[in-house]
C-alpha cells in the first residue's frame, strides 16, 4: 500500500486526468523523436551511399574519355604512314581526323624530343615535351598511362597527356594531349544537390578539372588532409573540422591513377525544420492534452459531486430522484441510487414487519420450548436424561428455524424439510424411502412437521426399524378425498418394517405426545398410531390449506 500511495497519492480527479494526458502525450512525443532520429540516420546513410555512387558515376565518365583516347592512340600507332616513317603524311592525316575534336597528337623520340605536334604546322621547330618524368615512367612500364596535370610548353595552358609507348624508331611514343578546361566539360554537377562541387584529381593530388561552387583551378593541390583517406576504391569522407556540415564522396578510376571526388553541404535545413516542427508540435500536443483533460476533469468533477449529493441525501433516509448529467455511466449510477433509495425504503418497511413477525414467532418458540421442557421434566428421572432430551429436541427445532431463516421465514419446500431432518441420521439414510409430490410449507408447518419427523426418526433409530441394518422405513404423502370433507386433504404415512418386534408402550412419553396430540392439534387433523409387531405405522391426515403456503 505504501508503494501504491507513493505513485498514486491523494489528489483530485483533475490532477490525475492531467497527469494521464501528460503520461500519454510524452511517450508519443518520445516515440516520434525516436522515429525522427531513425529517419535522420536513414537519410544520412542514404546520402552517403548516393554520394559514393555519384562519385563512381563521374569516374565512369572520365574512364570512358581516357579509354577513347587510349583507343585512338592504338589506332594511330598502327597507321601505315607512321610505320613507313612518313611523319608529314601522318601529321596531315591525324590533324584532319582530330580537327573537330579538342585532342592533339604528339610524336616523340626516346629523349622526349617532339617530332611532330598537331597544335603546330609540320616542320615547325619544336623542343622537348614539358613532362619528361611522365614519359620516362610510361617507357619503363610499357603500358598506356595518363599523366598528372601540368603546364604545357606549346599551349601555355594546363594540360594532361595519355601516352602510348612504342618500340619503333624514330617515334618512341605517341601522346594525346588535351587542355584541362576541355576535360572540365565532362565534369558536371547535374543530378547533384545545389551547392555541390565535383573534381578530377591526378596521382599527385592536383586538380585536373573542377566544377561547382568551389570550382578549383587546374593544378591546384587538393586538401592534403583529405587525400590520405582515399584508401578504398570508393567511399565517403566526413570530418566536421575539415569539412564542417559537408560530405565528400570519392572513387578511383579503374585502370588509371586518377580519382573523382564530389562534395557539398548536408541538407540540414529539412532536418532542422522537422525538428522544429516536432518540438513545436509536441509542446502543442501536450498543451492540448492538458487542456482537454482539464475540461473533462471539470465535467467529471461536477458529475461526481452531483452523485455524491444524491448519496448523502440517500444516507439521510430520503428517496432521491436521479440527476441528469452528460456522462452516460453517471446517469446509470444516478438511476441505480434512486432505485436503491426506493428499495431501501421498502426494505426498511419490510424489516419493521419482519421484526414484528420475529417477536411474534419468538414468543411462539419460547412457548413451545417451555411446554416441551415441562413435559420432559415430568417424564425424566435424572438431570442428565432431561438435558439430553431437551438438547435433542432443540436440535431438531433448530434445523427447522435455520431452514426458515435461510428463506426469510417465507416457507420451505416439504422435500427439503424432510431431507434436513433426516440428515441427523446419516447412517440410516439409505434405509428410508421417501415419495410424494413436493410443495412449499408454511413457516408454522415447517416447525411442527419437523418436530414430528425428528421424533419419529429418533424413536426408529433407538427402538424401531432404523436400529437394525435390515430395517426399512417408508415415508410418503399424497392427496386424499373424503365424501364428507370437500376440502383437499393430505395424508402423511410413516411405516416401519423389518425391525425388532414392536409392542405398545405402557406409558405415553413426550415423543408420543408430539407425534399424536401436538401433530393433530398443529394441523387441525387426525393422527393414527399403530404399534404393529412388524413395525410402527403413523398416519397424519390434515387439510392441505394448513400446511401449504399460498
UniProtKB/TrEMBL annotation:
Name of the top EC class for this enzyme: transferase
Gene3D superfamilies on file: Histidine kinase-like ATPase, C-terminal domain, PAS domain
Cited Pfam families: HWE_HK
Record organism: Rhizobium leguminosarum
Entry protein name: histidine kinase
SMART domains the record matches: HWE_HK
GO molecular function, one term: protein histidine kinase activity
E.C. number: 2.7.13.3
Reactions listed under catalytic activity: ATP + protein L-histidine = ADP + protein N-phospho-L-histidine
Domain Signal transduction histidine kinase HWE region intervals: 357-438
TM ranges: 16-39, 277-297
UniProt keyword list: ATP-binding, Kinase, Membrane, Nucleotide-binding, Phosphoprotein, Transferase, Transmembrane, Transmembrane helix
InterPro entries, per the entry: HATPase_C_sf, Sig_transdc_His_kinase_HWE
